[in-house]
Amino acid sequence: MLTDLQAQGASPDGGDETVERAGLRVDRTLAGFVEAEALSGTGIEPAAFWSGLADLIARFGPRNQQLLDTRDELQAKIDAWHRANSSAGTGAPEAFLREIGYLVPEPSPFKITTANTDSEIAEVAGAQLVVPVLNARFLLNAANARWGSLYDALYGTDALDGTLPQGKGYDEERGAKVIAWAKAFLDETVPLKSGSWTDFTGGNPELADPAQFIGQRGDNLLLRHNGLHIEIVIDRSSPIGGKDAGGIADVELEAALTTIVDLEDSVAAVDAADKADAYRNWLGIVRSDLTAEFSKGGERMVRSANPDRRYVTDGGELVLPGRSLLLVRNVGHLMRNPAIRTADGAEVFEGIMDAAITALIAMHDLKGLGRNKNSRTGSIYVVKPKMHGPAECAFTNDLFDAVEDMLGLTRNTIKVGVMDEERRTSANLAACIEAVKTRVFFINTGFLDRTGDEIHTSMLAGPMLRKAEIKQAQWIKAYEDRNVQIGLACGFAGRAQIGKGMWAAPDRMQAMLAEKIGHPQSGATTAWVPSPTAAVLHATHYHRCDVKARQALRAGEGIAPLSALLTVPLADGKNWSDEEIREEVDNNVQGILGYVVRWIDQGVGCSKVPDIHDIGLMEDRATLRISSQHLANWLEHGVICRDDIEAALRRMAEVVDRQNAGDAAYRPMAARGPDCLPIKAARMLILEGRAQPSGYTEPVLHRIRLEAKGE
């Protein structure tokens, strides 16, 4: 008897790597995962799912391509304006951008109507993590980062005084400083009616505001401030608690309220095997049955999702989540993927595939099929990146409507997070929000991609400032201000998140504590951090800043002028020295190679990469986009030439090889000669940067990674 797969079109001898499903050619690995795992328990039959997906692809594929064609047409018109106005030394003017449809009319005032969002989205301000879906251990760490030790975060980083702990033993003096810092924090956020937490001797504390005392978990005390919980760990049998007058062994903070499980910029998913692994991890974390085995200190360990926390209160029992609320970031509209092909062999748009399969997987949470609950309001949270303007947002809205119909979900079950990271989106932000006003749950500035698109859009306007100077350019402040101002004007307060971008230096926590408080002070309800430890430290900012009060103050502001946002960061005739130019080129090339070599050789989409000064920075495709576009711009305007790039590639390959000398999985580049694939990819990203769609790096990376996988 033929198996079901064979009956559907697979080769009986197993030679065909695809199976036929509703006219689609689906990779066996992906088809097997969907049918055996993703569909299990959802009540959706395989035939119905594949038929529905085939319909989505047929309906939305051509419209997706039309939107990409529009991007190219608008860019061509902007390029033509710059050629015709080569002496202008500015970006294309607002009137011209309106004439060609790059800018659309501002919508009439409106308020979003998003409903059934969880409190972590609508009510409480706090830190947000972004984690690559392909790394199960990191994924579990991020999900479990809902709670974290303030003592550990202070002791193990430079947050306290700019130094790191020395030696392997416990440093009593450093520990005393940690405890003093933490108790001063308690005095500030949950003060006692009299005295200091340093004088606390045990029992139920008498707080200045009794409403801040919530309950207990065993001897532990649960307090709340600005909507965030603080658990004071009481354990007199522990080395720390045993020496403390009140038995306080630790202070645990509610830290990463939300975590974006990322299928996009932080992963290298180029084929069906990668996509199946990504979807399987998303399923595992949604169901809370994902585990990760690893070795630590010579001991084999298994990590799994934390359970919820239960507290005794005056009213009975309070259950608090033990894990972050999980959001999932799909890919953007650009890329196709060979995991599924149409009957004529064309790869389908990956974003359409992601929309259907990630929502299908999230149904396991809606139906209570997992060990723990993710959304307590029955919502699915999908972050959609790299959309250009309101028409692309409207496309996503319609696509999500169709996915809901396909899966039998109530309208607007699938919420959408709009990444405000492309120039045409930030310039038309209100119209973009209006296009998804019934389901939008967040907007989030993405400085890195936004800078990459800024450079690409105005590539022909002239040479750009050096990267460090671009960060201080006029449009940046307007961009960050407009994000909050427009979000508040559209009714986000108390209903949806307004987010800010990543702190990219995971080892510089003292600097983060000093600087990142600016995000809640801006009125943003969340901001990205690079690690669970950073989430704990950033959580202290949301205790020290009442975001609701800040939003109330900013709600009356006028919106920063569009003209400021559209000001291009041009160099304005700067005459750099040869040393300054070489320094900038080396900095860019080193960053490109340091990231690309892991992407191509090891399939690592996000990692801590040493910069040219050996400072570890979190790198993903957004940072790569800036560096490659910046060099492409300088090449375009003759600031540098191809020989400068080739020389820098040779020099920086040796630098990156040295920086990775301790990595057993690393393959040195310099010795591989002209056929070294990471160097080949880096060269293409720079020399062909102007021709890459919107300056994105994915097409080159995917092509060379597939070549590397085939070696």
TrEMBL record:
Residues 170-219 form the Malate synthase G alpha-beta insertion domain. Residues 1-22 are annotated as: Disordered. The keyword Magnesium applies. Mg(2+) binds at residues 421, 449. One of its GO terms (molecular function) is magnesium ion binding. The active site is at 329 (proton acceptor), 620 (proton donor). Keywords: Cytoplasm, Glyoxylate bypass, Magnesium, Metal-binding, Oxidation, Transferase, Tricarboxylic acid cycle. This is Malate synthase G. It comes from Croceicoccus mobilis. The gene is glcB.
